[in-house]
Design goal:
Blueprint: E1 2-3, E2 8-15, E3 18-22, E4 25-40, E5 43-54, E6 59-69, H1 76-80
Antiparallel strand pairs: 1-2, 2-4, 3-4, 4-5, 5-6
Length: about 80
């Protein structure tokens, strides 16, 4: 973790590999992607990106951006994880 700005925390988690299997897609997660998050007060913005190499050799980019907001009835550790 590092402090990004006043009241902000920046986290990064590398994606080191894995497998994917589902209807119409089967393959491997390519090492090198990651999840980056910035927490500002009660909200966390998550930016996740990785590449999947399908069994047919095609590379598929998988991006995702999410905003998580902690509710008052959950402890910080349960909502930030």
């Amino acid at each position: 973790m590092r402090i990004h700005g006043v009241g902000e925390e920046l986290w990064s988690t590398p994606i080191i590999g894995g497998t994917v299997e589902g209807p119409g897609l089967r393959g491997d997660v390519v090492s090198g992607g990651g999840d980056w998050s910035i927490t500002r007060g009660e909200a966390t913005e998550l930016d996740a990106r990785c590449l999947l190499r399908a069994d047919d050799g095609a590379l598929n980019e998988v991006p995702g951006t999410f905003v998580l907001v902690r509710t008052t009835n959950l402890p910080r550790s349960a909502s930030a994880g």
